[in-house]
Amino acid sequence: MAVQMNSSSDNAAVTMEQLCKWYGSFQVLHNVDLSVAVGERIVVCGPSGSGKSTLVRCINQLETHEKGRLIVNGVELYKGMRGLAELRRDVGMVFQQFNLFPHLTVLDNCTLALVRARKLPRDQAEEIAMENLKKVRIPEQAHKFPTQLSGGQQQRVAIARALCMKPKLMLFDEPTSALDPEMIKEVLDVMTELARDGMTMICVTHEMGFAREVADRIIFMDSGRIIEQAAPSKFFKNPEHPRAQQFLGQMLH
Ligand SMILES: Nc1ncnc2c1ncn2[C@@H]1O[C@H](COP(=O)(O)OP(=O)(O)OP(=O)(O)O)[C@@H](O)[C@H]1O
């Protein structure tokens, strides 16, 4: 049984307390403390291998932690917990590789979970799917297959598909890394609009312009630890930790 939490954690979308994770004998997350408020936009950045993907993957239990506490939307998560389907319904995730079903049309990719998991009638599922395809500005692609779309369009389908489940929280794991430069902007524009609509978001990205413009808070990770967190105005102007200074030096020049 998932444990329902009360008290102050109810006001947070995500609370991590001393979170630790190992891959075999390699400790990838070291005592991570993080609280993300409902409606907050977080950008997670840091060097390759610093544990950013692992951190976000723990939030929807694609990875499980071994030590510490993790509470998402008021529910404490742990290995072997029940209620994973509900968790993943409430936590949308967009990956670097779009992970669309190639044999299904755009519309069917979007309606699949609504029909199968939510048991909605097909016409109602299609209505929700079309609303969200409009939101990501590709309603005219509804009857195409993923291979007939550009990378940027495929990623926007992936975002629409996640939005169909009306998530309370969206996770993005380097959503533009597999895209050509001209397509990056169209995906970032959609993400920016979601942020303006008040969606709680945790984004792993190297897009520092997006981070500067959209994030409420930047989380900087190194070697499995959060070593600096600050508002973008502070982080980009005056990063404190030498590793953050070095990282920004490389990213911005
Ligand atoms: N399934 C796995 N098994 C073993 N080691 C893993 C696994 N996944 C990731 N790692 C290792 O854990 C460390 C952190 O990986 P993670 O993908 O979380 O980092 P990251 O900061 O997202 O990196 P990148 O920016 O390159 O995507 C890396 O050293 C990686 O090689």
UniProtKB/TrEMBL annotation:
GO MF assignments: ABC-type amino acid transporter activity; ATP binding; ATP hydrolysis activity
Keywords, comma-separated and alphabetical: ATP-binding, Nucleotide-binding, Transport
Pfam families found in the cross-reference section: ABC_tran (PF00005)
ABC transporter domain: residues covered: 14-248
Source superkingdom: Bacteria
Family: Belongs to the ABC transporter superfamily.
Entry function: Involved in beta-(1-->2)glucan export. Transmembrane domains (TMD) form a pore in the inner membrane and the ATP-binding domain (NBD) is responsible for energy generation.
Protein name: Glutamine ABC transporter ATP-binding protein
Organism the protein comes from: Bradyrhizobium neotropicale
